[in-house]
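Protocol step 4 of 6: structure prediction from sequence.
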Amino acid sequence: MRVLVVEDEPDLRRQVSRALMEAGYSVDEAPDGEEGQFLGDTEPYDVIVLDLGLPKIDGISVLSHWRQADRDMPVLILTARDSWNEKVGGFDAGADDYLTKPFHMEELLARVRALIRRSAGHATPVLECGPVELDTRTGKVTMDGTAVSLTAHELKVLSYFMHHQGRVVSQTELIEHIYDQDFDRDSNTIEVFIARLRKKLSSELIKTHRGRGYSMSPPGETV
């Protein structure tokens, strides 16, 4: 899953980005509203963390621009303490959730997880696909109740499939959502990760759709 952090305070931006990366997300950063707006316009994000008090273009204007352009990615806004008018303005502009500064990083991570789940149509933190379970809170994966060890990138690929079960996902879409902007992207590695997942889990879970991409669904179900 890929996250954009738009925050002008360098220390806070680094702390948030580091926490998200340690939680398994691919993260891009923007120090002001202008760059943040551009990235939100041109890159596909699973969620955006957006400060409202930004230089160049304020957060409300950035968010309003995205929604007017039909950009529907979930947005978590960061507001200063007691700025209730900013919260109201953020929701009216199209925000999905808010967090008041200062905040606990664990709460931010929990809200990001919830936004990603809800946008993909999942209500619970534990995702299931046949015999496979993924606990989005811990990143723990089990197969028929037995823990499965995955590399960081294997987990990113599996997580994207688990969130988007029953839908054909192109190789390009996978690449855009598991790598950050600066990563040296190689489409061949996607095939390697999928082959490893099939070996570690089940060859029946991830299906190939020639010329279209891949899908994940319980054994016996078709897409």
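Step 5 (inspection) to follow. The two ends are 22 Å apart (CA to CA).
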